[in-house]
Design goal:
By secondary structure, this protein is mainly alpha-helical. The chain contains 13 helices and no strands.
Length: 215
């Protein structure tokens, strides 16, 4: 980094990072302790960064996990999983893979944008989010998930995520799911380990739903 450059902050790279973050999170908010005890070891959840991760996030918007996986599988089989593949495919080919007209437009725009994914790895969190939400079809949730799970950022949260909000409602005995603005303010107290809080809440959500007989 050059003189005056801002560090991207702590990067989660291993289970040791998760364990360190979980211990720190409990010191910040002791009510996470029973959830962490119940869920056990937190999953790392890291995935590669780049066009593939963002394109899959766009595909997954407003469809079920199973549907998203099926569409991504068809795209991969048809050679549509890369930026050149998207640009070379016809709209008809992309629709045959299961993409809607808006998502075709979003993916073509992302493929043509030629984002500097390597530069994003070293950029501060707010610059990463700003660069991503400037692209059509990428909102704060998608950008925050990418920063957390593809770039490993330790202090990013996704307050618009319904599973996180529902898990927080249950864990903290709230009268209802917190709205996005209120949830963002609530999560500020968990800095600099907000993505550890997210992993804990996601894991807790799965445990609760499994206990309720909902897979």
């Amino acid at each position: 980094m050059g003189e005056g450059a801002v560090s991207p902050g702590r990067i989660i790279r291993s289970r040791a990072c998760l364990e360190e973050g979980a211990r720190a999170l409990v010191r910040l908010e002791p009510r996470f302790a029973p959830a962490l005890a119940e869920v056990g070891a937190l999953p790392l959840r890291l995935k590669p960064d780049g066009f593939g991760a963002l394109s899959e996030a766009i595909v997954a918007q407003q469809v079920s996990v199973a549907s998203a996986r099926a569409i991504i599988g068809r795209m991969q089989a048809a050679g549509q999983a890369s930026a050149p593949g998207i640009l070379a495919a016809s709209d008809e080919d992309l629709r045959a893979s299961g993409l809607s007209r808006p998502k075709i437009g979003y993916l073509r725009a992302l493929a043509a944008a030629d984002l500097d994914y390597a530069a994003l790895r070293g950029a501060p969190d707010d610059e990463v989010i700003a660069a991503l939400v400037a692209q059509p079809g990428i909102g704060p949730w998608t950008a925050e998930i990418y920063a957390m799970l593809s770039l490993g950022r330790a202090d990013v949260f996704a307050p618009g995520d319904l599973a996180l909000a529902e898990a927080a409602r249950i864990l903290f005995d709230l009268p209802g799911r917190p709205g996005e603005r209120a949830f963002r303010a609530m999560a500020a107290a968990w800095s600099p380990w907000r993505s550890i809080a997210a992993r804990c809440l996601w894991a807790y959500y799965r445990v609760v739903k499994k206990r309720e007989g909902i897979e």
